[in-house]
Amino acid sequence: MMRFRPVQKIYLLFFLILCVHTLGVDQEAQADPFAQLFQSVPLLGRAVESDFPGSTLTKYPFLHMPQIGGEVRVTWLSYNMTNGKFLFPERGIALDLKNDLFFVDQVTAVEFAGRLQLARYSVRAVYDAYTRTHRGQGYFYWPELRIGADVDVFKRDTWRLGVNLDFTTNQPTLSVTHPMIMDSFQVIGQRPVTIGVHAWYNPRFTCGISPVLEVRYRWPIRTGTKINEFDVAGGLKLPDTILGCSAVRAGWRHTAIEFSSSGQTADVTFSGIFAEYVFYY
Q1: What is the DSSP letter of 137?
Q2: How far is residue 116's CA from residue 137's CA, in Å, rounded to a whole number?
Q3: What is the mean pLDDT of the chain?
Q4: How high is the pLDDT of residue 240?
Q5: In b/e form, how buried is each residue of 233-251, taking b as 16+ CB within 10 angstroms?
Q6: Cβ-contact 56, 239 below 8 angstroms
Q7: Exposed, middle or buried by CB within 10 Å (0-12, 13-18, 19+), for 60?
């Protein structure tokens, strides 16, 4: 009869435990379709684990809270109307908002924005308070409130890249009075809905103060109201604290808007600069 020494018994016991553990994990992975998916697609498993730590571990009893963050932003904007037209081809009317209807060329606004982020998903709200509006022989109204959602497809500590969706709560309107025939016309567009992409970059330096850059571009997914907007901002981000950190940024925004109703068309383009304070938490 074979007799084992104490050291051999320890090695044998360790080998048996290892075999049983491996067999149990394999059987559990086979019983769990998500475990099989995470094993076959490691990139997906790493992404889910980064958002919800512990969710991909089959025998781990705890699910850690995903990362929560966000930002609050106050922006001062100065817009120039680089193009503005009212078109009514059926009546043979084509008016320039600035030259024919004497619309104000430059307007200013204060924009308030907030974003709440959970892992790589976030919701946003943006409100524009105009201190001076586009008026002349008529007026141009653009909805003040915009609601949006972001998904950071690629997310790291110093950068993120993703897609976003935005929609407004009201309808844009252009109302004009023809200077020759003294007749009034009004164009009311559909509520704008856009899809877009965004990128954010913030390299970390040992001194604490670091540059921060953000770029956004969105385009329409509804035919009633078309809006193409490009937004770029850059500045300096202050050192992190327990409560969060602040950043001061400046940038440029270009917005092209077109909407139609009843055979009438409003075609307006804005371009301007802005300065803003951002608090990240």
Answers
A1: S
A2: 41
A3: 84
A4: 84
A5: bebebbeeeeeebebebeb
A6: no
A7: exposed
